[in-house]
Amino acid sequence: MISLYRPGSGFLHRAPAGVKLALLAATALGLSFVPATPGAVLPMAGVVAAASGLFLLGGFGARALGEAWWRLRWLILILGAALVVFVSLPAAIVNTGRIVVLVLLAELVTRSTSTSALMGVIGRLLRPLRTLGVNAEAVALVLSLTLTMAPVVGGFVRAVREAQDARGVRLGARMAVPLLVRTMRHADAVGESLAARGLG
Fold first, then answer.
1. Which residue in 93, 130, 145, 170 is deepest, having the highest Cβ count within 10 Å?
2. CB within 8 A of 31, min separation 6: which ones?
3. CB burial class (10 A; 0-12, 13-18, 19+) of residue 106?
């Protein structure tokens, strides 16, 4: 099963998984209260810059930051353009900034926290629901996989493009076929992991 986790000794790696997930949730909640007004544009830009800076402070480097932004390019362009057309430029900046910050922070969490640590924290949080018949371990695994899925698929897109560029082929929309193959293989690997844990 593919994981974005990279071993390290930076402060993000040393921080407990529960603290990182709590801060991610708190940030998501806090950003939801930011008004989409002209006065919020500069503060939102600062938050985006801070989230980007954590890649460097956390020891992941400029390359990892560039890859994260590159994966977000279509989301930024499409969502931003739609909001500019249908709402306003300040609303486009603020609302797109919210998404960018959360995706960047989610990637930092997955890069600095092992899947087993994430599952352990989520499983403990869901443990009280066992009395209602909820399989806490299964839900924890699903949530941890969901958290890592967007960057993983983004990595598949980059790999397909690099392979085609090396062959001098420009697929365009036809790149969907090799991308689908890679995604299905990943799904098979995830299924095998679930079965090995007795959750399949």
1. 93
2. 47, 98, 101, 102
3. buried
- Residues 6 or more apart whose CB falls under 8 angstroms from that of 72 comprise 100, 103, 104
Q: How far apart are CA 192 and CA 169, in angstroms?
A: 33
Q: What does the alpha-carbon distance between residue 33 and residue 164 come to, in Å, rounded to a whole number?
A: 43
| Residue 121, pLDDT score | 81
Domain ranges of the chain: 1-113, 114-200
Amino acid identity for residue 133 in this structure:
G
Give 139-150 pLDDT, tens digit per residue. 666 666 666 665
Q: How many of the other CB atoms lie within 10 Å of CB of 184?
A: 10
| Consecutive 10-residue averages of pLDDT for the chain (200 residues) | 68 91 92 93 96 92 90 86 92 94 90 81 77 71 63 67 69 62 68 63
